[in-house]
Structures are given as structure tokens and as C-alpha cells.
Amino acid sequence: MDTLASYDELPYDSLPLPETQPDFLAAMARLHGFDAPKPSCARILELGCAQGGNLIPLAWRWPESDCVGVELSQVQAEAGAAFIQALGLPNVRILHGDLAALPDDLGEFDYIIAHGVYSWVPPSVQQALLEVCRRHLSPRGIAYLSFNVAAGWKTLQPLRAALTGRTAAELPAPARFEQALRVLDELAAEWTDPVLLKEVAYLKSAAPSYLFHEYLAEFNAPMAFAEFADQLDAHGLRYVGEAGPRNAVVELEDAWGLMPEGMAGRWLDAEAALDDAFAIRFRRALIARDDAPCAQPPQAEALCGLAFYADLRCDEEIDLEAATEQGFVNPAGNTFPIAMPAMKAAAMALSAAYPGALDYAALRSAAAQVLAQYGASPELDEAAFRDALLQVVLLHGVMPTVATGSFSIEPGAVEPGERPRANALARQQANTPGWVVSGARHVALDLDAPGRVLLGRLDGSRTVDELAAQMQAMLAQSGRDLPLERLRELTWQQLWLFARQGLLV
Ligand SMILES: C[S@@+](CC[C@H](N)C(=O)[O-])C[C@H]1O[C@@H](n2cnc3c(N)ncnc32)[C@H](O)[C@@H]1O
Question: Which of the listed residues 44, 46, 47, 72 should we mutate to test ligand 1's pocket, taking the one with most ligand atoms within 8 A of CB?
């Protein structure tokens, strides 16, 4: 096979995925007791990388890394290669080819990423993917492999069956997608199961490529966790832990009535039980070679060697006196409950420093300072603080990193100047249709069309007033007349957002 027609016809939305950042993966490995290779100069392989929307920003951020992507869809691989060439980025390449037939001389990689691939390829390619991990992972390397989980997919199978059964497989992908939308309307009228109806409603507004490749693809084979673990075992690999948010860990411990120490030997069973208990649909597994030492569960003590970042806000007055639970919300709209005053103070300190990171000691003292500043007792119970931090880290409210001093972007430091200039990656992403702009910490930025145009124009040649006037003229063309003063205000707002996301240089 020399290409994958379905992805040529309907390319996947190729986004930066924060959980695949090597500094995050290395931090997760550290929580599980071992040191993964240094991210800043790592070799990184991404399998099924689509057009490189995840890999290219990683290569950009770490110029000393060496990044290789492999993609079977010719359209996507060529789009990625063209983007890289236009950017002139020397440390990343995308190979057009089958991950099951990689060139022999690729060498070892410190990080291997395969997001959205394993469950969506035939069994022979699944086996090949695990072989690639074993053959090409360096001794302390980490692989990130996401897959659909049988426990949660059980209830969704009727939806996949209806969509595949009632649409014509021989149609080109975009036409079949249109047919699927009509089937969703029929199902919404026919069905009563709330889980299925919720998914039907979600699919109606989801990205077309998601609906198509998840529900109409030839392969989508959710797997039970135990079977996945067996597959790893058969390939000389081991499950290290979860890279995805784990809000159910604590409940699992409660449900099993076991202390974490008692669960150690039965960790894989516990993971499987978790999937059943919470109807888990998707996992992001961290994998290492089976001779890599690793600990279960994640160790709170290991937090002391890491740094952290977070972008959280709380919409009510923060109570730093009492351990009342309050919701902290991230830009994606996810809410993280925090009760301990010191942890609330830590969330405030991290958000003020975002996108910069604070190492553990700095975080502790910043939290104590915030408490003191607001007249609360700055005393911290060290063990309780670490446990609370681990909880919010496992939820992904606070992200851990091993890259303390080496986060070279230092984005907060660059304020919009007289003639604002965005970095070349951000400008090219903004100016190229079909590309998502990646912000600091590898997040996908949700920019509207005028925001993209503005970002694409930030080449340092225009003053803010000139940019505002240009935006005013552009909006007027589409029938939106706004006074120049308002446009100036909006332009400044956008520029500050770009600055916070590390896009300005
Ligand atoms: C669901 S998409 C995920 C894309 C990307 N990893 C992401 O998460 O945005 C699966 C990707 O794997 C690619 N793919 C499927 N089989 C492949 C193979 N045998 N070798 C290389 N790439 C493959 C597809 O073309 C597609 O781009």
C-alpha cells in the first residue's frame, strides 16, 4: 500500500497534543521511578503523525532534538514536508511510508509517539507498531501509545454499527461523511439510550475527520486493558502508567479498599478494574522496555525533583483560610477541585507565572508567600501538600515537567513591542489553511479568523496602530464596521494573548 485513501480524502485535524511533550513524558516517568532521556536533545519518533501538527512544534521548541515522523497518507505526509521546508526547520522530517516497513537505519529514539494509531490499524500493523517500539526505543526511552478501550466502547458499538451499516463504504470520504450526518439525525429520532444519544449529539458538532475516522473507518478495534498489557509483554515492553488525566485513581483505591502499597503487585488488574468501573473509552499509555525499572503507583516524593506549570482561574473569591473545595478552571474549560489552602495558593502562583514553570521548592515558597500576602497562615504540611499536588497533577490541572531551566521560550518575558513580531512558526501556522496555531506548552490555540490574520501579519514591520487600521479595513470588507479605537483595544487584547502564549519574539 503506498497511501491511505481515506486520510488523503479527509485528512485528520493535526493538533499539538500536550500529553506527548517529551518533558511531560519524562516527568511522568520520574513519578514512576525512572529517569527518561533529556528531552531538549532527544531523538523523537512519531508514528502516524498526519501532517505533523504535533511533531513540528516539538521540533521547533527544541532545536537540538532530532524528530522523525512517519505517515502513510501521501497527502498528509507531503503537506507536512512542504510546511517544514517553508519553515526551514532542519531537525524534523516526515517520511511518507508504512510504519510496518520502516527503513533499517533509523536508529534508536528516546521518545516514540503514536497517538490515535494503534486501534485504527489492522492487527498486523498493531504488532508492527509494538515491534517498532521495542526495536527503536532507547534503553531508558518512553513510548506514548493511545488506544480505544473496550470497557467504554462496548456501549458505543451500536452507533458505529449503525453508521457503517447505513452509509456506503464505496463513497469518497467527504460524501460518506455527509451521509453519516443524515444517519445521525435518524438515530436521534429512533434511539432512547442516553449514552448513545449524548454521543450522537456530540458527533453532530465534532470535527468531520473525527466522526469519519472513529466511526466509519475500516478499523476501530477497542481493546481490553489486560489484553493490551499482554501484547506489550509479548513484545518485551511494559506498561509504565497513564499519560492521560487520571481523575479516578483515588476512587479506585477506595473501591478496592486497598492501600497503594498493597496494590503494587496487582497494578495491572487494578487498571483493568478501573476501566470497567468508569467505562473508560480511551487510554494514553506510557510504555518502556521491559527491563526498565519502574514503580507503581506514581510516587509523591518524586514531585520534589520536578517543576510545574498551570493556567488556572477561579471564578469566585478564593478562600485561603478554610479547606473548602473550590473549582479552578483551565482554558479548555475543565474544572479541578482544590480544597487545601496551600494548594489554592500554589495554583495562584503557577497561573501568575504561566507559561513559566516553578520547581517544587519555588512552588512551595511561592504558595507560602501568597498565603502570607493574603493574611493566611503560611505554614505548609509538607506531606499533605505533596499529596494534594500529586492529585492535581494526575488530573492534569497542574502539569509536571523535567525541563526546569531549559524552557527556552520564556514567553511571558516578551511583551508586545512597538512593532510586534511573532515567531516564524506561529506566523506560518496562522497563514497556512488547515494548520492549528500551537501556543506555549504545546496547546492548540482557538483563534478566530481575524485573530489568525493578525498573527500572520506580525512580522515586525507594522506598528500596533497600523495593524489596527488594517484589521478595521479587513472587517469592514466583511460588513463589520468597528471604530478604530475599538479595533486598537481588540488588537492589544490579542497581542497580550499572543505574548502569554509565547508567540512574540
Ligand atoms: C487517527 S489518525 C491520527 C493522526 C495523528 N497521530 C493525531 O493524533 O492527530 C491516524 C494516522 O495514522 C496514519 N496511519 C495509518 N496506518 C498507518 C501506517 N501503516 N503507517 C503510517 N501511518 C499510518 C493515518 O494516515 C493517520 O494519519
Answer: 72
pLDDT bin (cut points 50, 70, 90) of residue 251 is very low
Q: What is the rounded CA–CA span in Å between residue 466 and residue 485?
A: 12
Instruction: With respect to residue 381, please indicate whether it lies within any of the assigned structural domains.
Output: yes
- The set of cell numbers assigned to 174 is 467527504
Determine the atom of ligand 1 nearest the C-alpha atom of 49: 6
pLDDT of res. 270: 80
- Quick one: 35 and 172 in the same domain? no
Same domain, 205 and 243: no
Share of the chain above pLDDT 90, in %: 85
Query: Do 136 and 158 fall within a single domain?
Result: no
pLDDT tier at 237, thresholds 50, 70, 90: very high
162 domain-assigned: yes
The residue among 257, 289, 321 that closes a domain is 289
39 part of a folded domain: yes
Domain count, the chain: 4
Range of the domain at 87: 5-149+222-289
Ligand 1 atom closest to the Cα of residue 146 is 8
Grid cell 475516522 is found at 213
234 and 252 Cβ atoms separated by less than 8 Å: no
Q: Decide: helix, strand or coil at residue 92.
A: strand
* 406 belongs to a structural domain: no
Residues 360-395: tens digit of each pLDDT: 999 999 999 999 999 999 888 999 999 999 999 999
**Model confidence over 259-288: pLDDT tens digits?**
555 555 567 888 888 898 889 999 999 999
- Report d(CA 243, CA 150) in Å as an integer: 18
CA-to-CA separations, 126 to 48, 120, 144, 449, in angstroms, rounded? 12, 9, 14, 39
The closest residue, in CA terms, to atom 18 on ligand 1 is 98
Query: Whole-model pTM above 0.90?
Result: yes
CA 102 to chain centre: 26
Quote the mean pLDDT of the chain. 92
Nearest atom, ligand 1, residue 1 CA: 19
Query: Measuring from each residue's beta carbon to the nearest atom of ligand 1, which residues come in under 6 Å?
Result: 4, 7, 12, 14-15, 48-50, 70-73, 76, 98-100, 115-117, 120-121, 125, 213
Q: What is the pLDDT of residue 254?
A: 53
Clarify whether residues 234 and 102 are in a common domain. yes
According to the model, what pLDDT value does residue 250 have?
Answer: 43
